[in-house]
Design brief:
This protein is of the alpha+beta class. Helices cover 36% and strands 24% of the residues. Among the domains are: 41 residues; 30 residues, no CATH class. A 3-stranded antiparallel beta sheet has the order 1-2-3, with no helix packed on it. The chain starts with 13 loop residues before the first helix and ends in a 5-residue tail after the last strand. It holds the Pfam family DUF6788. InterPro entries: DUF6788. It comes from Halopelagius fulvigenes. This is DUF6788 domain-containing protein.
């Protein structure tokens, strides 16, 4: 272990280096923990964005209503002993449904 302080990365702005020089060891460790977590978060966000871009644009089914997203799936719900098709999709934490039609023996 060297007795000399470490050299900051060249990409690090002088203002940031000067600010960090004034921090206590405890605060520096807190900053290090935060920046590591922030870097992991941003890398995860980039991976998710890359995955969405790489999935490509899927063709929209012909019978899909304009107000239903293409990621929707068809589910069957039973109401009063009758079965019905619904388009269903997630928007954040909320699940949306839109009536499609009755389930009949032809489908």
């Amino acid at each position: 272990m060297s007795y000399e302080p470490p050299a900051p990365p060249q990409e690090l702005l002088t203002d940031v280096v000067d600010t960090l020089d004034d921090y206590s060891p405890k605060l520096l460790r807190d900053v290090a923990r935060y920046t590591e977590e922030l870097a992991e978060h941003r890398e995860r966000e980039e991976r998710l964005a890359d995955n969405e871009e790489n999935e490509g644009v899927k063709e929209r089914p012909e019978n899909l209503p304009d107000d239903v997203p293409s990621k929707a799936t068809i589910t069957v719900k039973e109401i009063n002993d009758n079965r019905y098709y619904y388009w269903q999709w997630r928007d954040g934490e909320k699940i949306h449904s839109k009536y499609k039609g009755p389930v009949d023996s032809e489908n």
